[in-house]
Amino acid sequence: MSSLTEKDRPIVQLLLSTGTCPRCILRFCCVGSQMLYRHPHQDLMRDLQEFLRNNQEKEDTGCLDAAHPPCKRIRLEHSEGGPEELNHNGAIPQMPSVDNGTATMESSAAKVCNVCLGILQEFCEADFVKKVCQKVNSADYQFTSFVFSVSLPPQLSVRERAAWLVVKQEMRNLGLSLAKDDIVQLKEAYKWIIHPQLSEELGVPADGKSLFEVSVVFAHPETDEECHFLATACPDCFKPAKNKQSVFTRMAVIKALERIKEEDFLKHFPCPPGSPKNPCDALEIQCNNGAVFVAGRYNKYSRNLPQTPWIIDGERKLESSVEELISEHLMAAFKADSFNFSSSGREDVDVRTLGNGRPFAVELVNPRRIRFTAEEMKRLQQAINDSSDKIQVRDLQLVTRSAIGRMKEGEEEKTKTYSALIWTDEAIQREDIAFLDDIKELKLEQKTPLRVLHRRPLAVRGRLIHSMQGEYLDEHHFRLRLRSQAGTYIKEFVHGDFGRTKPNIGSLLKRTADILELDVESVDVDWPPTLDD
After folding, report:
1. Cα distance between residue 153 and residue 157, in whole Å
2. Residue 530: inside a domain, yes or no?
3. Of the residues 100, 358, 439, 448, which has the maximum number of CB atoms within 10 A of its CB?
4. Axis crossing angle, helix 322-334 with helix 374-387, rounded to the nearest 10
Protein backbone atom coordinates (compact mmCIF):
# COMPACT_ATOMS: atom_id res chain seq x y z
CA MET A 1 0.00 0.00 0.00
CA SER A 2 1.61 3.23 -1.12
CA SER A 3 -0.53 5.12 1.41
CA LEU A 4 0.87 3.06 4.30
CA THR A 5 4.48 3.10 5.40
CA GLU A 6 6.56 1.34 8.01
CA LYS A 7 5.58 3.85 10.70
CA ASP A 8 1.93 2.82 10.15
CA ARG A 9 2.69 -0.83 10.89
CA PRO A 10 2.17 -0.60 14.68
CA ILE A 11 -1.17 1.19 14.18
CA VAL A 12 -2.39 -1.45 11.73
CA GLN A 13 -1.23 -4.32 13.94
CA LEU A 14 -2.65 -2.80 17.12
CA LEU A 15 -6.08 -1.83 15.76
CA LEU A 16 -6.60 -5.13 13.97
CA SER A 17 -5.94 -6.96 17.22
CA THR A 18 -8.64 -4.91 18.98
CA GLY A 19 -11.41 -5.47 16.41
CA THR A 20 -11.16 -2.38 14.22
CA CYS A 21 -12.29 -2.53 10.57
CA PRO A 22 -9.87 -1.88 7.67
CA ARG A 23 -11.38 1.48 6.74
CA CYS A 24 -11.13 2.81 10.30
CA ILE A 25 -7.52 1.62 10.33
CA LEU A 26 -6.90 3.70 7.21
CA ARG A 27 -8.47 6.66 8.97
CA PHE A 28 -6.17 6.29 11.98
CA CYS A 29 -3.22 5.99 9.60
CA CYS A 30 -4.32 9.37 8.22
CA VAL A 31 -4.77 8.00 4.69
CA GLY A 32 -6.39 10.67 2.52
CA SER A 33 -6.77 8.67 -0.69
CA GLN A 34 -10.52 8.55 -1.37
CA MET A 35 -10.20 5.74 -3.90
CA LEU A 36 -8.57 3.47 -1.36
CA TYR A 37 -11.59 3.59 0.95
CA ARG A 38 -13.82 2.50 -1.94
CA HIS A 39 -12.07 -0.83 -2.33
CA PRO A 40 -14.17 -3.79 -1.15
CA HIS A 41 -13.94 -4.58 2.55
CA GLN A 42 -12.48 -8.05 1.93
CA ASP A 43 -9.82 -6.69 -0.44
CA LEU A 44 -8.75 -4.11 2.11
CA MET A 45 -8.48 -6.80 4.75
CA ARG A 46 -6.26 -8.91 2.49
CA ASP A 47 -4.14 -5.88 1.62
CA LEU A 48 -3.60 -5.07 5.30
CA GLN A 49 -2.62 -8.67 5.93
CA GLU A 50 -0.14 -8.52 3.09
CA PHE A 51 1.17 -5.22 4.42
CA LEU A 52 1.89 -6.76 7.80
CA ARG A 53 3.65 -9.71 6.20
CA ASN A 54 5.94 -7.47 4.28
CA ASN A 55 9.13 -6.88 6.29
CA GLN A 56 10.75 -4.37 3.97
CA GLU A 57 11.85 -1.16 5.64
CA LYS A 58 11.09 1.11 2.68
CA GLU A 59 8.23 3.48 3.22
CA ASP A 60 6.82 2.90 -0.26
CA THR A 61 6.10 -0.79 -0.88
CA GLY A 62 3.80 -0.79 -3.88
CA CYS A 63 0.82 1.10 -5.17
CA LEU A 64 -2.88 0.64 -4.76
CA ASP A 65 -3.72 4.18 -5.76
CA ALA A 66 -0.77 6.20 -6.99
CA ALA A 67 -3.04 8.78 -8.60
CA HIS A 68 -4.39 9.95 -5.24
CA PRO A 69 -1.60 10.83 -2.79
CA PRO A 70 -2.52 10.98 0.90
CA CYS A 71 -3.67 14.35 2.16
CA LYS A 72 -2.99 13.72 5.84
CA ARG A 73 0.16 12.25 7.38
CA ILE A 74 1.34 11.16 10.80
CA ARG A 75 3.73 13.65 12.30
CA LEU A 76 7.12 12.31 13.37
CA GLU A 77 8.08 13.85 16.63
CA HIS A 78 10.52 12.96 19.34
CA SER A 79 8.65 11.65 22.36
CA GLU A 80 8.98 14.07 25.21
CA GLY A 81 7.43 11.78 27.70
CA GLY A 82 3.77 11.49 28.56
CA PRO A 83 1.35 9.53 30.68
CA GLU A 84 2.46 6.23 32.05
CA GLU A 85 1.15 3.03 30.51
CA LEU A 86 -2.65 2.95 30.39
CA ASN A 87 -4.39 1.52 33.44
CA HIS A 88 -6.22 -1.79 33.48
CA ASN A 89 -9.14 -0.28 31.60
CA GLY A 90 -6.85 1.07 28.90
CA ALA A 91 -4.10 -1.52 28.80
CA ILE A 92 -2.67 -1.98 25.33
CA PRO A 93 -3.23 -5.57 24.28
CA GLN A 94 -0.36 -7.72 23.18
CA MET A 95 -0.03 -7.36 19.42
CA PRO A 96 -0.27 -10.48 17.29
CA SER A 97 2.76 -11.74 15.44
CA VAL A 98 2.80 -11.76 11.68
CA ASP A 99 2.59 -15.54 11.73
CA ASN A 100 -0.84 -15.56 13.32
CA GLY A 101 -1.99 -12.47 11.34
CA THR A 102 -4.33 -14.49 9.17
CA ALA A 103 -6.32 -15.69 12.17
CA THR A 104 -6.50 -12.14 13.46
CA MET A 105 -7.74 -10.89 10.08
CA GLU A 106 -10.42 -13.53 9.79
CA SER A 107 -11.58 -12.83 13.32
CA SER A 108 -11.69 -9.07 12.69
CA ALA A 109 -13.54 -9.50 9.41
CA ALA A 110 -16.35 -11.31 11.18
CA LYS A 111 -16.74 -8.69 13.92
CA VAL A 112 -18.60 -5.41 14.02
CA CYS A 113 -15.98 -2.68 14.13
CA ASN A 114 -15.35 -1.45 17.66
CA VAL A 115 -14.85 2.13 16.44
CA CYS A 116 -17.41 2.85 13.67
CA LEU A 117 -19.96 0.26 14.90
CA GLY A 118 -20.39 -1.03 11.35
CA ILE A 119 -20.88 2.29 9.53
CA LEU A 120 -17.83 1.66 7.32
CA GLN A 121 -18.70 -1.99 6.89
CA GLU A 122 -22.16 -3.16 5.77
CA PHE A 123 -23.52 0.38 5.27
CA CYS A 124 -21.00 0.93 2.48
CA GLU A 125 -22.21 -2.08 0.54
CA ALA A 126 -24.32 -2.06 -2.63
CA ASP A 127 -27.39 -3.49 -0.88
CA PHE A 128 -27.65 -0.52 1.47
CA VAL A 129 -27.02 1.96 -1.34
CA LYS A 130 -29.88 0.40 -3.31
CA LYS A 131 -32.11 0.63 -0.23
CA VAL A 132 -31.40 4.36 0.02
CA CYS A 133 -32.01 4.90 -3.69
CA GLN A 134 -35.28 2.97 -3.58
CA LYS A 135 -36.44 5.32 -0.83
CA VAL A 136 -35.41 8.35 -2.89
CA ASN A 137 -37.08 7.12 -6.07
CA SER A 138 -40.30 6.16 -4.30
CA ALA A 139 -40.56 9.68 -2.83
CA ASP A 140 -41.02 11.03 -6.39
CA TYR A 141 -38.86 14.17 -6.13
CA GLN A 142 -37.57 16.29 -8.99
CA PHE A 143 -33.83 16.89 -8.60
CA THR A 144 -30.75 17.35 -10.76
CA SER A 145 -28.14 16.77 -8.03
CA PHE A 146 -28.06 15.79 -4.38
CA VAL A 147 -26.24 16.43 -1.14
CA PHE A 148 -25.82 13.52 1.25
CA SER A 149 -25.93 14.01 5.01
CA VAL A 150 -25.54 11.49 7.78
CA SER A 151 -26.40 11.63 11.49
CA LEU A 152 -24.19 9.40 13.64
CA PRO A 153 -24.73 8.16 17.21
CA PRO A 154 -22.89 10.43 19.66
CA GLN A 155 -21.16 7.47 21.32
CA LEU A 156 -19.05 7.07 18.17
CA SER A 157 -17.10 10.13 19.29
CA VAL A 158 -16.43 8.46 22.64
CA ARG A 159 -15.23 5.25 20.98
CA GLU A 160 -13.02 7.16 18.57
CA ARG A 161 -11.43 8.99 21.49
CA ALA A 162 -10.76 5.68 23.26
CA ALA A 163 -9.15 4.15 20.17
CA TRP A 164 -7.04 7.25 19.62
CA LEU A 165 -5.71 7.15 23.18
CA VAL A 166 -4.56 3.56 22.67
CA VAL A 167 -2.88 4.38 19.36
CA LYS A 168 -1.31 7.54 20.75
CA GLN A 169 0.22 5.60 23.63
CA GLU A 170 1.69 3.00 21.27
CA MET A 171 3.08 5.68 18.96
CA ARG A 172 4.61 7.50 21.91
CA ASN A 173 6.37 4.32 22.94
CA LEU A 174 7.94 4.24 19.47
CA GLY A 175 8.99 7.87 19.61
CA LEU A 176 6.24 8.97 17.23
CA SER A 177 3.21 11.21 17.55
CA LEU A 178 -0.35 11.09 16.22
CA ALA A 179 -2.50 14.21 16.52
CA LYS A 180 -6.23 13.62 16.77
CA ASP A 181 -6.94 16.22 14.10
CA ASP A 182 -4.87 14.23 11.61
CA ILE A 183 -7.28 11.29 11.76
CA VAL A 184 -9.71 11.24 8.83
CA GLN A 185 -13.20 11.98 10.12
CA LEU A 186 -15.69 9.11 9.98
CA LYS A 187 -18.32 11.16 8.14
CA GLU A 188 -15.77 12.29 5.59
CA ALA A 189 -14.60 8.75 4.87
CA TYR A 190 -18.18 7.48 4.66
CA LYS A 191 -19.11 10.12 2.10
CA TRP A 192 -16.03 9.30 0.05
CA ILE A 193 -17.34 5.77 -0.23
CA ILE A 194 -21.07 6.40 -0.58
CA HIS A 195 -21.14 9.45 -2.89
CA PRO A 196 -20.04 7.74 -6.12
CA GLN A 197 -22.35 4.79 -5.49
CA LEU A 198 -25.37 7.01 -4.88
CA SER A 199 -24.48 9.18 -7.85
CA GLU A 200 -24.28 6.18 -10.18
CA GLU A 201 -27.51 4.66 -8.89
CA LEU A 202 -29.49 7.94 -8.96
CA GLY A 203 -27.98 9.16 -12.21
CA VAL A 204 -27.14 12.66 -10.91
CA PRO A 205 -23.98 14.15 -9.36
CA ALA A 206 -23.34 14.79 -5.69
CA ASP A 207 -23.11 18.54 -5.05
CA GLY A 208 -22.50 20.16 -1.69
CA LYS A 209 -24.62 23.15 -2.77
CA SER A 210 -27.58 21.09 -3.97
CA LEU A 211 -31.00 21.92 -2.55
CA PHE A 212 -32.02 18.24 -2.60
CA GLU A 213 -30.83 16.43 0.50
CA VAL A 214 -30.69 12.70 1.12
CA SER A 215 -30.09 11.96 4.79
CA VAL A 216 -29.55 8.83 6.84
CA VAL A 217 -29.94 8.70 10.62
CA PHE A 218 -27.98 5.95 12.39
CA ALA A 219 -28.50 4.70 15.94
CA HIS A 220 -26.92 2.01 18.10
CA PRO A 221 -29.16 1.20 21.08
CA GLU A 222 -26.70 -1.40 22.41
CA THR A 223 -24.17 1.31 23.28
CA ASP A 224 -26.47 4.27 23.98
CA GLU A 225 -25.38 4.54 27.62
CA GLU A 226 -21.68 4.84 26.83
CA CYS A 227 -21.91 8.64 26.88
CA HIS A 228 -23.52 8.85 30.31
CA PHE A 229 -20.29 9.03 32.33
CA LEU A 230 -19.54 12.34 30.60
CA ALA A 231 -22.59 13.94 32.24
CA THR A 232 -21.01 13.29 35.65
CA ALA A 233 -17.58 14.50 34.60
CA CYS A 234 -18.81 17.56 32.65
CA PRO A 235 -22.39 18.38 33.76
CA ASP A 236 -22.30 21.88 32.25
CA CYS A 237 -22.10 20.39 28.76
CA PHE A 238 -25.46 18.66 28.98
CA LYS A 239 -28.39 21.06 29.20
CA PRO A 240 -31.97 19.99 28.41
CA ALA A 241 -33.41 21.49 25.24
CA LYS A 242 -37.06 21.65 24.21
CA ASN A 243 -36.46 20.28 20.73
CA LYS A 244 -34.06 17.51 21.77
CA GLN A 245 -35.16 14.12 23.05
CA SER A 246 -31.87 13.52 24.85
CA VAL A 247 -29.22 15.76 26.39
CA PHE A 248 -26.57 13.51 24.86
CA THR A 249 -26.37 15.24 21.51
CA ARG A 250 -23.32 14.88 19.31
CA MET A 251 -22.19 18.47 19.94
CA ALA A 252 -22.66 18.12 23.71
CA VAL A 253 -20.60 14.93 23.75
CA ILE A 254 -17.82 16.50 21.65
CA LYS A 255 -17.76 19.50 23.98
CA ALA A 256 -17.46 17.21 27.01
CA LEU A 257 -14.69 15.18 25.37
CA GLU A 258 -12.75 18.41 24.84
CA ARG A 259 -13.03 19.23 28.55
CA ILE A 260 -12.55 15.90 30.27
CA LYS A 261 -9.04 15.08 31.43
CA GLU A 262 -7.36 12.12 29.80
CA GLU A 263 -6.85 10.29 33.07
CA ASP A 264 -10.54 10.72 33.98
CA PHE A 265 -11.60 9.36 30.62
CA LEU A 266 -9.40 6.29 31.07
CA LYS A 267 -10.96 5.60 34.45
CA HIS A 268 -14.49 5.45 33.06
CA PHE A 269 -14.19 4.03 29.56
CA PRO A 270 -12.36 0.92 28.28
CA CYS A 271 -9.40 1.61 26.02
CA PRO A 272 -9.51 0.10 23.48
CA PRO A 273 -13.32 -0.02 23.20
CA GLY A 274 -14.93 -3.44 23.12
CA SER A 275 -16.54 -4.97 20.04
CA PRO A 276 -20.34 -4.71 19.97
CA LYS A 277 -22.61 -7.64 19.19
CA ASN A 278 -24.62 -5.79 16.55
CA PRO A 279 -23.97 -3.04 13.98
CA CYS A 280 -25.79 0.30 13.89
CA ASP A 281 -29.38 0.57 12.75
CA ALA A 282 -30.36 2.90 9.91
CA LEU A 283 -33.31 4.46 11.74
CA GLU A 284 -34.39 6.87 9.03
CA ILE A 285 -33.72 7.46 5.36
CA GLN A 286 -35.17 10.83 4.47
CA CYS A 287 -35.37 13.15 1.47
CA ASN A 288 -35.88 16.88 1.52
CA ASN A 289 -35.96 19.49 -1.21
CA GLY A 290 -35.03 23.08 -0.52
CA ALA A 291 -37.94 25.50 -0.46
CA VAL A 292 -39.31 26.99 -3.67
CA PHE A 293 -40.65 30.56 -3.69
CA VAL A 294 -43.57 31.83 -5.76
CA ALA A 295 -44.52 35.49 -5.95
CA GLY A 296 -47.26 37.56 -7.55
CA ARG A 297 -49.92 40.17 -6.83
CA TYR A 298 -53.44 39.53 -5.66
CA ASN A 299 -56.70 41.46 -5.86
CA LYS A 300 -59.34 40.88 -3.20
CA TYR A 301 -62.91 41.68 -4.20
CA SER A 302 -64.79 40.40 -1.15
CA ARG A 303 -65.58 42.37 2.00
CA ASN A 304 -65.99 39.13 3.91
CA LEU A 305 -62.60 37.50 3.36
CA PRO A 306 -59.56 37.75 5.67
CA GLN A 307 -56.06 37.70 4.30
CA THR A 308 -55.07 34.81 6.59
CA PRO A 309 -57.26 32.26 8.43
CA TRP A 310 -59.36 34.10 11.02
CA ILE A 311 -59.28 32.02 14.20
CA ILE A 312 -60.22 33.35 17.63
CA ASP A 313 -59.85 31.20 20.75
CA GLY A 314 -59.45 28.15 18.57
CA GLU A 315 -62.68 28.81 16.65
CA ARG A 316 -62.64 29.57 12.96
CA LYS A 317 -64.71 32.61 12.06
CA LEU A 318 -64.77 32.46 8.24
CA GLU A 319 -64.43 29.48 5.96
CA SER A 320 -61.56 30.70 3.79
CA SER A 321 -58.87 33.34 3.31
CA VAL A 322 -56.74 34.91 0.59
CA GLU A 323 -53.78 32.87 1.77
CA GLU A 324 -55.64 29.58 1.44
CA LEU A 325 -57.32 30.33 -1.88
CA ILE A 326 -53.88 30.95 -3.41
CA SER A 327 -51.73 28.45 -1.55
CA GLU A 328 -53.93 25.38 -1.86
CA HIS A 329 -53.34 25.40 -5.63
CA LEU A 330 -49.60 25.98 -5.23
CA MET A 331 -49.35 23.20 -2.65
CA ALA A 332 -51.03 20.74 -4.99
CA ALA A 333 -48.98 21.74 -8.05
CA PHE A 334 -45.61 21.70 -6.28
CA LYS A 335 -46.52 18.70 -4.07
CA ALA A 336 -45.16 20.54 -1.03
CA ASP A 337 -45.42 19.57 2.64
CA SER A 338 -46.42 23.02 3.87
CA PHE A 339 -46.23 26.71 3.01
CA ASN A 340 -45.51 30.14 4.48
CA PHE A 341 -47.44 33.13 3.12
CA SER A 342 -46.19 36.72 3.30
CA SER A 343 -47.23 39.98 1.68
CA SER A 344 -46.48 43.67 1.49
CA GLY A 345 -48.81 44.69 4.30
CA ARG A 346 -52.33 43.40 4.82
CA GLU A 347 -55.92 44.57 4.57
CA ASP A 348 -58.78 44.03 7.01
CA VAL A 349 -61.40 41.39 6.34
CA ASP A 350 -63.90 44.02 5.08
CA VAL A 351 -61.41 45.91 2.89
CA ARG A 352 -61.02 45.26 -0.82
CA THR A 353 -57.68 45.39 -2.67
CA LEU A 354 -58.08 46.75 -6.18
CA GLY A 355 -55.80 48.23 -8.88
CA ASN A 356 -52.64 46.26 -9.59
CA GLY A 357 -53.08 44.30 -6.40
CA ARG A 358 -50.91 43.59 -3.36
CA PRO A 359 -47.49 41.87 -3.73
CA PHE A 360 -47.28 38.47 -2.04
CA ALA A 361 -44.88 35.54 -1.79
CA VAL A 362 -45.38 31.91 -0.83
CA GLU A 363 -42.61 29.68 0.47
CA LEU A 364 -43.33 26.07 -0.47
CA VAL A 365 -41.61 23.72 1.97
CA ASN A 366 -40.10 20.44 0.75
CA PRO A 367 -41.69 20.45 -2.73
CA ARG A 368 -41.56 17.26 -4.79
CA ARG A 369 -41.87 19.21 -8.02
CA ILE A 370 -39.60 22.22 -8.56
CA ARG A 371 -39.44 22.89 -12.32
CA PHE A 372 -42.21 24.86 -14.02
CA THR A 373 -42.14 26.57 -17.39
CA ALA A 374 -43.54 30.07 -17.86
CA GLU A 375 -46.51 28.56 -19.67
CA GLU A 376 -47.18 26.16 -16.77
CA MET A 377 -47.08 29.07 -14.32
CA LYS A 378 -49.66 30.90 -16.48
CA ARG A 379 -51.94 27.87 -16.36
CA LEU A 380 -51.51 27.65 -12.61
CA GLN A 381 -52.41 31.34 -12.28
CA GLN A 382 -55.51 30.77 -14.38
CA ALA A 383 -56.53 27.80 -12.23
CA ILE A 384 -56.36 30.00 -9.12
CA ASN A 385 -58.40 32.72 -10.79
CA ASP A 386 -61.02 30.29 -12.06
CA SER A 387 -61.49 28.75 -8.62
CA SER A 388 -62.98 31.82 -6.89
CA ASP A 389 -64.62 35.14 -7.65
CA LYS A 390 -63.30 36.56 -4.38
CA ILE A 391 -59.68 36.94 -5.51
CA GLN A 392 -57.55 37.17 -8.63
CA VAL A 393 -53.77 36.84 -8.98
CA ARG A 394 -51.42 38.24 -11.58
CA ASP A 395 -47.69 38.12 -12.40
CA LEU A 396 -47.36 34.65 -10.81
CA GLN A 397 -43.71 33.59 -11.04
CA LEU A 398 -40.88 31.67 -9.43
CA VAL A 399 -38.46 33.85 -7.46
CA THR A 400 -35.43 33.36 -5.23
CA ARG A 401 -35.38 33.64 -1.45
CA SER A 402 -33.23 36.76 -1.62
CA ALA A 403 -35.64 38.46 -4.04
CA ILE A 404 -38.43 38.30 -1.45
CA GLY A 405 -36.46 40.75 0.65
CA ARG A 406 -37.29 43.44 -1.90
CA MET A 407 -40.95 43.14 -0.94
CA LYS A 408 -40.12 44.08 2.65
CA GLU A 409 -37.35 46.62 2.01
CA GLY A 410 -38.30 50.07 3.25
CA GLU A 411 -41.85 48.89 3.77
CA GLU A 412 -42.85 51.86 5.92
CA GLU A 413 -41.37 54.33 3.44
CA LYS A 414 -43.57 53.04 0.63
CA THR A 415 -46.91 54.66 -0.14
CA LYS A 416 -50.39 53.26 -0.52
CA THR A 417 -53.49 54.77 -2.07
CA TYR A 418 -56.94 54.29 -0.57
CA SER A 419 -60.57 55.15 -1.30
CA ALA A 420 -62.83 55.58 1.74
CA LEU A 421 -66.60 56.08 1.90
CA ILE A 422 -67.21 58.40 4.88
CA TRP A 423 -70.35 59.27 6.84
CA THR A 424 -70.81 62.39 8.98
CA ASP A 425 -73.38 62.92 11.72
CA GLU A 426 -74.01 66.55 10.74
CA ALA A 427 -74.96 67.60 7.24
CA ILE A 428 -72.13 68.79 4.99
CA GLN A 429 -71.92 70.85 1.82
CA ARG A 430 -69.29 70.66 -0.91
CA GLU A 431 -67.42 73.61 0.50
CA ASP A 432 -67.14 71.89 3.90
CA ILE A 433 -64.77 69.28 2.51
CA ALA A 434 -63.02 71.33 -0.19
CA PHE A 435 -60.14 72.32 2.12
CA LEU A 436 -59.08 68.65 2.41
CA ASP A 437 -57.73 68.79 -1.15
CA ASP A 438 -55.22 71.45 -0.10
CA ILE A 439 -53.73 69.49 2.80
CA LYS A 440 -50.30 68.00 2.01
CA GLU A 441 -47.91 65.93 4.16
CA LEU A 442 -50.23 65.87 7.16
CA LYS A 443 -48.40 64.44 10.18
CA LEU A 444 -50.33 62.04 12.38
CA GLU A 445 -49.68 60.54 15.78
CA GLN A 446 -51.37 57.17 16.06
CA LYS A 447 -51.58 55.16 19.24
CA THR A 448 -51.96 51.44 18.63
CA PRO A 449 -55.65 51.06 17.69
CA LEU A 450 -57.93 49.46 20.25
CA ARG A 451 -58.99 46.83 17.73
CA VAL A 452 -55.44 45.46 17.33
CA LEU A 453 -54.14 46.14 20.84
CA HIS A 454 -54.51 42.45 21.73
CA ARG A 455 -51.83 41.51 19.17
CA ARG A 456 -49.72 44.67 18.81
CA PRO A 457 -47.64 46.46 21.45
CA LEU A 458 -48.88 49.79 22.74
CA ALA A 459 -46.95 52.56 20.99
CA VAL A 460 -47.38 55.95 19.38
CA ARG A 461 -46.41 55.88 15.71
CA GLY A 462 -45.80 58.90 13.51
CA ARG A 463 -47.36 58.59 10.07
CA LEU A 464 -47.91 60.83 7.04
CA ILE A 465 -50.94 61.53 4.87
CA HIS A 466 -49.28 62.76 1.67
CA SER A 467 -52.40 64.02 -0.08
CA MET A 468 -56.22 63.85 -0.05
CA GLN A 469 -59.05 64.46 -2.50
CA GLY A 470 -62.70 64.62 -1.46
CA GLU A 471 -65.72 63.75 -3.64
CA TYR A 472 -69.05 65.04 -2.34
CA LEU A 473 -71.90 62.51 -2.52
CA ASP A 474 -74.74 63.86 -0.35
CA GLU A 475 -75.33 65.71 2.93
CA HIS A 476 -73.94 62.89 5.04
CA HIS A 477 -71.58 61.05 2.69
CA PHE A 478 -68.43 61.77 0.73
CA ARG A 479 -65.65 59.70 -0.75
CA LEU A 480 -62.09 60.47 0.24
CA ARG A 481 -59.12 59.34 -1.84
CA LEU A 482 -55.86 59.59 -0.01
CA ARG A 483 -52.22 58.63 -0.47
CA SER A 484 -50.50 57.73 2.77
CA GLN A 485 -47.35 56.29 4.23
CA ALA A 486 -47.51 52.50 4.45
CA GLY A 487 -48.51 51.36 7.92
CA THR A 488 -51.06 54.12 8.45
CA TYR A 489 -54.29 53.02 10.12
CA ILE A 490 -56.79 54.58 7.72
CA LYS A 491 -59.97 53.67 9.60
CA GLU A 492 -58.62 55.31 12.73
CA PHE A 493 -57.58 58.38 10.74
CA VAL A 494 -61.24 58.77 9.76
CA HIS A 495 -63.06 58.25 13.07
CA GLY A 496 -60.22 59.13 15.47
CA ASP A 497 -60.36 55.94 17.59
CA PHE A 498 -61.59 57.86 20.66
CA GLY A 499 -58.86 60.45 20.24
CA ARG A 500 -56.03 57.93 19.83
CA THR A 501 -55.25 59.22 16.30
CA LYS A 502 -54.59 62.97 16.04
CA PRO A 503 -55.54 64.77 13.90
CA ASN A 504 -58.34 62.83 12.21
CA ILE A 505 -61.11 63.54 9.68
CA GLY A 506 -63.61 64.10 12.47
CA SER A 507 -61.42 66.71 14.17
CA LEU A 508 -60.61 68.39 10.85
CA LEU A 509 -64.31 68.64 9.94
CA LYS A 510 -65.28 69.45 13.54
CA ARG A 511 -67.98 66.77 13.59
CA THR A 512 -68.31 63.04 14.08
CA ALA A 513 -67.12 61.01 11.11
CA ASP A 514 -67.04 57.29 10.49
CA ILE A 515 -65.90 55.01 7.69
CA LEU A 516 -68.39 52.81 5.86
CA GLU A 517 -66.19 51.25 3.18
CA LEU A 518 -62.48 51.14 2.47
CA ASP A 519 -60.61 50.00 -0.65
CA VAL A 520 -56.87 49.73 -1.26
CA GLU A 521 -56.35 51.17 -4.74
CA SER A 522 -52.58 50.74 -5.05
CA VAL A 523 -49.59 49.38 -3.14
CA ASP A 524 -46.56 51.20 -4.47
CA VAL A 525 -44.01 48.40 -4.32
CA ASP A 526 -42.21 47.73 -7.59
CA TRP A 527 -42.09 43.97 -7.11
CA PRO A 528 -42.47 41.32 -8.38
CA PRO A 529 -41.68 42.16 -12.02
CA THR A 530 -44.70 42.64 -14.26
CA LEU A 531 -45.19 39.78 -16.71
CA ASP A 532 -46.63 39.99 -20.20
CA ASP A 533 -50.06 38.43 -20.44
Report:
1. 8
2. no
3. 358
4. 140
- The model's pTM: 0.81
First to last CA, the chain: 66
487 and 362 part of one domain: no
308-318 pLDDT tens trace? 998 888 888 88
What integer is the mean pLDDT of 438-445? 97
Q: Are residues 183 and 46 in the same domain?
A: yes
Same domain, 22 and 171: yes
Length of the chain: 533
Query: How many domains are contained in the chain?
Result: 3
Q: Which residues are catalytic?
A: 348
Same domain? For 351 and 491 the reply is: no
| CATH code, 408 | 3.30.70.2510
The DSSP code sequence of 359-385 is: EEEEEEES-S-----HHHHHHHHHHHH
Cα–Cα nearest to 349, from 385, 297, 308, 315: 308
Contacts of 443 (CB under 8 A, 6+ apart): 462, 463, 464
Domain that holds residue 198: 6-55+112-226+269-288
Instruction: Pick the more confident residue, 121 or 66.
Output: 121
Q: Is the pLDDT of residue 441 over 50?
A: yes
